[in-house]
Write a structure and sequence with these properties.
about 240 residues; alpha/beta; Rossmann fold; 2 domains; 4-stranded parallel sheet; 13 helices; about 10% strand
Length: about 240
């Protein structure tokens, strides 16, 4: 199975190790992974800020970049959801809407691809820590991916898992929201961290680098002893971390 990796801006710049983990897991499970070098930002920041015409230019470039891909896999539920938004973006353009629909059909968030396409729920991971999981808004509400991460984490040997209270609430990132609404965003992420501390977990797992950057940055500023990890890092673990 040939898979094209859509790394996303945040993973490329701040979490490059996540891309490595995704590739290693996919290759161990029979996938040939390719990396289209022309890929760019998916356009989500511009789209969320109302610059839809500018977003169309980016979307067209991304559609062309992944046009020949069999599958597109991304370690970000948020960016994966944005790819699916292209269909709405081009609702009045029959030609580009068709192309957008075709890309959406073959684009999957990483855990979604493992569970729903490869039919794999146990990747052989070993992670001897107590952890909780943050469900990102775009991944759960727009992509509808809720069960896949849980199925994979349930099969991680040594993992002591605690459900996160009020897990459905936003962490306050929301892309440009955290820039435009700083006081509100700060209160939201503080509340999220309080809930994480309630679990007594020493690791927070997530599947969206934007959320992890937001929560992790605030945790670091507060001096909390909580490690923040992408789910791919946990699923690629073979020992105590």
């Amino acid at each position: 199975m040939r898979v094209s990796l859509f790394i996303t801006c945040l993973a490329d710049v701040f979490y490059s190790g996540v891309g490595k983990d995704v590739i290693e897991i996919l290759e161990r499970n029979g996938c040939e992974v390719v990396f289209p070098a022309n890929q760019t930002c998916c356009g989500q920041p511009a789209y969320n800020s109302g610059y839809h015409q500018d977003t169309k230019d980016v979307a067209k470039h991304m559609i062309k970049t992944f046009e020949l891909a069999d599958y597109v896999v991304t370690p970000s539920g948020s960016c994966g959801a944005m790819i699916h938004e292209y269909s709405h973006l081009f609702h009045a353009d029959e030609v580009w809407k068709k192309k957008a629909d075709e890309l959406a059909k073959k684009t999957f968030e990483f855990t979604q691809f493992l569970v729903d396409v490869l039919k794999i729920e146990d990747v052989g991971a070993v992670f001897n820590r107590k952890a909780t999981y943050h469900t990102s808004c775009h991944m759960t509400r727009l992509l509808g991916v809720k069960d896949a991460p849980m199925k994979l984490l349930e099969n991680v040997k040594g993992l002591e898992f605690e459900s996160l209270p009020s897990k459905e609430t936003c962490c306050g990132f929301g892309g440009t929201f955290s820039v435009k609404m700083v006081p509100i965003s700060e209160q939201m992420v503080n509340e999220k961290i309080e809930h994480i501390e309630e679990t007594k977990a020493d690791v927070l797992i997530g599947a969206d680098c934007g959320c992890l950057m937001n929560i992790g940055g605030r945790i670091e500023r507060q001096g909390k002893p909580i490690k923040v990890m992408h789910i791919a890092q946990v699923l690629n673990s073979k020992q105590n971390n």
